[in-house]
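# step 3/5: fold
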Amino acid sequence: MNTVTYILNFAIMIYSLSICLYYVFLGLVSAFHLIAYKKSNSFVDHNLLLSSPMAPGISIIAPAYNESKTIVDNINALLSLHYGIFEVIVVNDGSKDDSLEKVIKEYELEKVDFAVNYQLKTKEIRSVYRSTNKAYRFLTLIDKENGGKADSLNAGLNISQYDYFVAIDVDSVIEPDALLKMIKPFLESTDKKVIATGGAIYIANSCKIENGQIIDIEVPRNMLARFQVLEYTRAFLMGRIAWSRLNGLLLVSGALGLFDKNVAINCGGYYSQTVGEDMELVVRMRRYMYDRKEKHSVRYIPDPLCWTEVPTTLRMLGRQRNRWTRGTMDTLWIHRKLFFNPKYGRLGMVGYPFWFFFEWLAPIIEFSGFCYLIVLILLGSINCYFFLFLLAFAYLFSVAFSFYSILYEEFTYHKYRRVEQIYRLFFTSLIEPISYHFLNVWWALTGNISFLKGEKTWGAMDRKGFNSKE
C-alpha cells in the first residue's frame, strides 16, 4: 500500500509541476513575442491598406440564431469597419424570435433572386435578401433552415465572393480596424502560407456601446463575467501568443477569425457534426497543408480586436463550458492521428499533446486527485504539513499567473484605465482559485460525460443584450 501511495503521489507531483512549468514557459514566450510585436508595429500605419490595390476583398460571415437583442448593434459595427473591399453576410439560422424581421426592417431589405453555388452541403436556403438602400449595399442576409453554426458558416461560404472570409459570432463587436490588422500577416508572409489569423477577445459585459462601437470600457459588475475576464486575458494574452510563435496553434476563436477561403473549402468547410467547429476546422486545415507538404502558419494578433458578451448565469455558463469540452474531445478524437506524429511537425509533437494532457485531461486528473485525497484522509495516510504546502503553492501560483496577466495587459494595451478597475480584477484573482475554478472542473467533467453519451446539441444561450448592467 505504501508503494502504491508513493507512486501515485509522485505521479501527481510530476504532472502538477509539468503544468506549472508549461504555463511559465508559455508566459515567457508570450512576453517576449508581445514585446517584439509592439515594437515592430509601433510605427505601422494600418490605414495604408485602405487605399492599397494589394488589399484583398474579405467576406464577413455572421451566423445568427435568436440574437434579437444585439443583432442590429452588431451589424452596425460590421458595416462601419475600416476596410476597402468587404461584404457582410448575416445568416439567419432559423431563428424563432424576431431577429429576421428586425434586420429586414432596419436595413430596408427585400428578397432577391440568387443562384447559390453549393460547394458545401448545407440545409436549405429559403431566401436571400439585399437592401434597397445603397448605404447598405455591402449587406446580404440569408434566411435558412436551422442547421447549427457550422452549417450557417458553410451557407455563407457558398455565396461569398472574396478569397478571404471572417467568421464571427453575431453577439460580438469588432474594433473598426480589426480587418486591417488581421489581413496584414497574409500579405507580409513570404516563407510560409498564412491560412488563418485570430485576434484577442475582450468581454463587453457592462461596457457602454453605441451604434456598434465601444464607448466606455468597464470591468463587468457580474462576478461570473469578471471571472471570465481573467480567463480570457490568460488564454489570449499569455497562451495563444505563445502557441502562434511556436507554430502549434490549434484554435482560432469562433468569435473572430480570418481564413483563406480556398483552403477551408478544399478541406471540406466546417464540420456540422461537432459543436467545436472552430477548433476542428483549424486542425483540419493544418492537416490538409501538412499532407500537401506546404509550409504554413496560423497567426495570432494580440491587439484587442473583438468584444463579446459572455454568460452571466451558472446555467448558461455551464452549458457553454459543457459544449467547449465536448468540442475539444470531438476534435481530439477526429484528429487522433496527430498524436505524437512527427509528420505533422510541432502541431503533432507539441500542440496536440498539450491539448490532450493539459486541456482535456487536467480536470479529470484534478477531480481524481480530490477523490484520492479523501481516501488518504480516511485512511489517515496524509502528511498535513506537506498537504498544506502543496495547497498554498497551487493557490499562490494561480493567483500570481492571473496577476501577471493583468499587469501585462496594463503595460501593453491598457484597456482598463481606472485604478479601481485593476483593484477589482486583482480581488477577483484572489477568490477565483477557491470558487470559480471548481465550477470549471465540474463543467468539464459533465462535458466528458455528455460526450460519452453522444450528446451533440448546441444548447440555447440567452442574451442580456449590450449595455445591460451586468
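# step 4/5: annotate
The CA atoms of residues 226 and 371 lie 29 Å apart.
# step 5/5: archive (pending)
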